[in-house]
């Protein structure tokens, strides 16, 4: 595999943008203050959730984790996840198999 490059600052200003094709799935998430992603899961994945800017209240199976820029959380994708932006926020989300 060659070298692939992406720029999170060039990603869509709102919503979810895949940064690369294939595995692991790497997504740039941009949310406006008070915007929430509905609860969902990612079966058979491990998730790395890195807040790049702002503050996010990340609900995992009903347990809220208050995250701010620089915080990184790793968890099993079987859990129900629902991020809500406390302020305008951006995150890098990596979903790997296994």
From TrEMBL:
SUPFAM superfamilies given in the database record: RmlC-like cupins
Coiled coil location: none
Residues in Cupin type-2 domain copies: 34-89
Family annotation (Pfam families): Cupin_2 (PF07883)
Gene3D superfamilies tied to this protein: Jelly Rolls
Name of the molecule in the record: Cupin domain-containing protein
The species this protein was found in: Haloarcula limicola
